[in-house]
Amino acid sequence: MYELDDLNMDEAVLKQYSGEEEKITILKKIDNKKIVSVGAFAFSEHREIVEITLPETVVSIGAHAFYNCRNLASITLYDTVTDIGDGAFKNCYRLHNINIIGTGLNTKCLKGVLSEVNNEVKVTIHYDDDDAVLVFPYYLYNYEENTPARIVNQITEGSGIQYRECVDGADVNYMQYDRLFQAGMYIDVKDASYKIACYRLKYPYKLSEDAKRQYKDYLNKNIIEIVNDMVKNEDYDGLNLIFSMEILDRESCMSCIDTARENSHMEGLGQLLAYQKKHFAPSHRKFEF
C-alpha cells in the first residue's frame, strides 16, 4: 500500500500510496521506519480519499502531495509540519475541515494549507490548554480587463484573504481575526458570519470581552433571518450549531416555526418543533390536596 524512500536506517519518506481507502491514518512507523515526510505526488489523483490523518513525526509535505484529491474533506496534522510544498493541496475543492494538534507555537502548517485552499474552511486548533475553532471564509481570484491600457488586472473577491492573513506562522492573531468581523460584513462574510460568531463564542480561546459582545449582538439581532435561511437552504448542520448555542428564544423560535410551516419546509419545521418542545414546553403545575 505504501512505497517508502529510505533516508537512513531509521527514517523514511512516504513516496507513494497505492490503496483505495476513503479514510487513512498514517502510522508513525512503517516497516520499522519513522515517517518524517509525505513525498511529492504521494497521494495525488486519489479521488476516493475523504479523510486523512498524519502522524506527529511528519515534518514536511512535498509538492503536489495531495494534488487533485477532489473528495478530500478533512485532514488532521500536527504543528510539527514546518514545510508544505507548492500545490500540495491544489484542486482539493472539498477540503473544509483542518485539524491542527500542537502547542500553537507554530502555525506554518496551517498557513501552508490555507494558502492552497480558497474555499470556506473550518479550522480546529488543539492547544495544550484549550481548543479554538475558526472559520475562514472563501475567496476568489478574478480578472478585469483594462482595455485602454491593454492589460488584465487580477482582483480578489471575498474576505478570505484578509482572514488568512491572521495566520502569521507563529500563532493565529486572534485580535486581528475578531476585528475583521464588522469589516467583512460589508464584503461577503455574511454567508459565514453565523459560523464565525458561533464557534468563537462556543470556543472562546483568546476572545476579548469586546469581541464577545460583538458576536452576541450580531446573533441576537439576526437570529430569525439566520435560522430562516438555514431552513430554506436545508443547512441542518448550521441549524444544529445554532441549537447547541441555545440562543434561539421562544418568540424567535415561534416566528421561525410559522415561516417554515408557511413555506412547507417540513424537515426544518420538524427540527424547530423538537427544539421548541425541549426548551419551551409548558410547565405542568402540581396541585396538592
TrEMBL record:
Coiled coil: none
Membrane-traversing stretches: none
InterPro entries: LRR_5, LRR_dom_sf, Surface_bspA-like
Matches recorded under Pfam families: LRR_5
Record-given protein name: Leucine-rich repeat domain-containing protein
Organism of origin: Lachnospira intestinalis
